[in-house]
Amino acid sequence: MSNKSKYYNHDSVWQKRAQLNNPFYGSYSSHLYGKLIRQIQSLHPRSLVGLKLLDVGCGAGMFGLKVVEYGMDYTGVDESSVAIEIGLKHNPGIKLKVLDFALDHILSPNELNAYDMVTCINTLHCLIEKDERVMMLTNIRKALKSEGLFLITTMCGPFTPVTDFGKPPRHYGLVSDIRGELHQAGFKEILWQNIQTATPQAPIPNYMVALK
């Protein structure tokens, strides 16, 4: 991101994963991806074939493997070049590229109003600064077609994040705060729910759908 000292070093995390035989997440991601696919099907009850989907903060493009099974036109972007390199190596048929959505003026003309749907899976809470979260959300809205849908999962508080070298590694905002940032970026929220029950040790993964 624009000030990477405030975040986990995503590249180093992905470099460690690259040393594993399978650098991808396991059963948790498969369960979450299944839920997202079912939600997409409920929002688009007709065929998903050809639906243009942009996945912001895609990592190595794991969600793309599930998406293309349904005939959707998937593009994944991530600020980590290491993650994208891993994804292209393991999944050469998936469209992936390096792009930091928390920066201003990063969308090319052919990326404006281009996508039927954007997903952002457990990425927003990696941005510590509010202005960068709102910038990312604003860019996502610009990338969507008119009446396009935005599906987001993110960790929500109230929790005190564990510090890493004096910096909070994650932003666990209140649901009301995240809704406010969505509205500030111009979105109209249409659905919100908890993905699972919170525990004293873990924040709540929340799921939201917003309309451009």
Break the fold down into its secondary structure elements and pairings:
Blueprint: H1 10-18, H2 27-43, E1 52-56, H3 62-68, E2 73-78, H4 81-90, E3 95-98, E4 115-121, H5 130-143, E5 144-156, H6 175-184, E6 188-194, E7 204-211
Parallel strand pairs: 1-2, 1-4, 2-3, 4-5
Antiparallel strand pairs: 5-7, 6-7
Helix pairs in contact: 1-4, 2-3
Helix and strand element order? HHEHEHEEHEHEE
Q: Sum up the overall morphology in one term.
A: globular
CATH superfamily: Vaccinia Virus protein VP39
- CA radius of gyration is 16 Å
Sheet bearing the most strands, described?
7 strands, mixed
Strand content: 15-25%
Q: What would the average pLDDT be, to the nearest integer?
A: 81
Task: Name the poorly predicted regions.
Answer: 1-6
The proportion of residues forming helix, as a percent range, comes to 25-40%
Describe this structure in words.
- With 212 residues, the protein is an alpha/beta fold.
- Helix content is 32%, strand content 24%.
- The protein has 6 helices and 7 strands.
- Strands 3-2-1-4-5-7-6 form a 7-stranded mixed β-sheet, sandwiched between helices.
- Helix 1 runs parallel beside helix 4 and helix 2 (27-43) crosses helix 3.
Features:
single chain; 212 residues; alpha/beta; Rossmann fold; 6 helices; 7 strands; globular
Short description, anyone?
The chain has helices at residues 10-18, 27-43, 62-68, 81-90, 130-143, 175-184; strands at residues 52-56, 73-78, 95-98, 115-121, 144-156, 188-194, 204-211. With 212 residues, it is α/β, with parallel strands linked by helices. It has a single domain, classed as Vaccinia Virus protein VP39 (Rossmann fold, 3-Layer(aba) Sandwich).
